[in-house]
Fold FACT complex subunit SSRP1.
Amino acid sequence: MADTLEFNEIYQEVKGSMNDGRLRLSRQGVIFKNSKTGKVDNIQASELAEGVWRRVALGHGLKLLTKNGHVYKYDGFRESEFDKLSDFFKAHYRLELAEKDLCVKGWNWGTVRFGGQLLSFDIGEQPVFEIPLSNVSQCTTGKNEVTLEFHQNDDAEVSLMEVRFYVPPTQEDGVDPVEAFAQNVLSKADVIQATGDAICIFRELQCLTPRGRYDIRIYPTFLHLHGKTFDYKIPYTTVLRLFLLPHKDQRQMFFVISLDPPIKQGQTRYHFLILLFSKDEDISLTLNMNEEEVEKRFEGRLTKNMSGSLYEMVSRVMKALVNRKITVPGNFQGHSGAQCITCSYKASSGLLYPLERGFIYVHKPPVHIRFDEISFVNFARGTTTTRSFDFEIETKQGTQYTFSSIEREEYGKLFDFVNAKKLNIKNRGLKEGMKQSYDEYADSDEDQHDAYLERMKEEGKIREENANDSSDGSGEETDESFNPGEEDDDVAEEFDSNASASSSSGDGDSDRDEKKPAKKAKIVKDRKPRKKQPESKKGKDPNAPKRPMSAYMLWLNANREKIKSDHPGISITDLSKKAGELWKAMSKEKKEARDGAPGGPANPVFFLQEWDRKAEDARRDYEKAMKEYSVGSKSESSKAERSKKKKKKQEKQTKGKVEKKSATSKSLSSTKSPAKNMSESFKSKEFVSSDESSSGESKKEDSEEEGVASLPPSSEESASGSD
């Protein structure tokens, strides 16, 4: 028999909803960990009173009852696991795992039984449904009727809000069955009633969520927020976590209370209660209890009289009453030295705090993400500017959180923190590649191509050039303002026939063209000429003779193996160096021998002359081979040139025939109205119809043809005859 049993994908029924998690059974007891909230339910083996196995909607379920009346329900088991669980309960808990089926008759009358914190509606001996009384928020009575109202569950798509029971009257005197029913419900229900005096009261505290100023009254079992408009009663059992976070300005503190289930106001749910304190605000606090009660209840964690900063007093009292640790930021420090990062979430600016076991964002809306529920994180570029980046977190349930507008200086600190916590980074490359991407990201402002900036720079250059041209061309000209009424009088149109009259200089059309752009209201960019495609390099002929080697290379090829044998294990580079040193030494000896040193057969002079002769012979052979190769290649190239010239001549003849034909047709059309053509003034390009110029090429051809058409018919015929 194993000492432990573990089950994954088990669902715990809590307040009408099924929470996914892991169930573990051991000798010490039963432990269930909620996958969503991380909350752990621990049931000691000595507290177990009964175990029931039954068929439910999700397969089979296990219901555990404790000696103090608590009920725990777990669903998602398979039918085959009953024997294993039954044997485990007998061996370690000494309990019989009973099998009970629910009644499915559909009757709506039966018997109500109260067992601990559970209300069971039975038909005969079979239960129809069960209601945990801790889910009841209100119980009201009427004539023969009891109404139960329930806490709304945000995790469930549909929540049961109300159930009414009809209680028939009885013949017993002095006993009202409706009141008896209501008292049984109220004794176990989660109905908050402010009885007695508060332990202490904090006046006019600034609350960010829900917004406003509230008086906080501390009671032994719940927290009462009293405001001008709303009141909230928060049981300490619903407090999940406490956070104490310093503000980035180092002058304020956030105190965050995580709630499950949340407090409600209409359709709004507040999962976090956020209080904002000033560090400079102090308070003297006296508990409404005697010293013996304080010592007995809080065991030294609180005293009757306390004084200090307001945020310290509130957090200290809450820690003692809720009996939970206060989470503070760890060793993370941002670029500015703060323990948080300024960012935006859902279009609202706030602060992101990297903690030791998660992230928390305050304040609108507050978000708490634990490391164990994170699937991966991602660093992304900002969508609006390159001075910031986005930090994305995706949970294992598929929920994605995007914290945007984070200063790029925080990137290194945040990445090191995430890497140290061993979180999966989605866009991580190779180890060396990550550092490179960080450097590129840090200089993104300088490296990023900004099209708008380039355009503005180019327009600025054009303005400077135009200003310089206008000032150089005429010293008397000054910048003119754009006056719509005076435009026709002072400034000539670009394509006007008498545009020369508007020019102050008489240097001709070239000067006028240079000054035109300065008078335009709209600046037109100069188009950059297209780069000419580089001509493809001619391939090397494989049949061409190879160039001859020098005396040194001939000597090296002959002595390579000898050098290797003299220096075993030598590398290629070292071998080349050694050979160069030997050759240099022989060349030096050769020079000395030429200056008058005695020579002989073993003298380096004769030795070097031998390799010089070999190099000279190789050079002569190369020149001879090149002459033979050049004669053959010239004959082939001459054939190719002749064929190319012939082809060009044919193309030229064909083009000439086409030009003659078009010139003849143009001359015929021009003779019909010669006077009209000569009398009309030059038309602007703005009035040229699409029929006359449809493309760039047609314009060019028309201009050429107009020159031919302007000739008299006799000269045209003579021109065509001469062609």
Remarks:
- The chain has a mean pLDDT of 75.
- The longest strand covers residues 252-265.
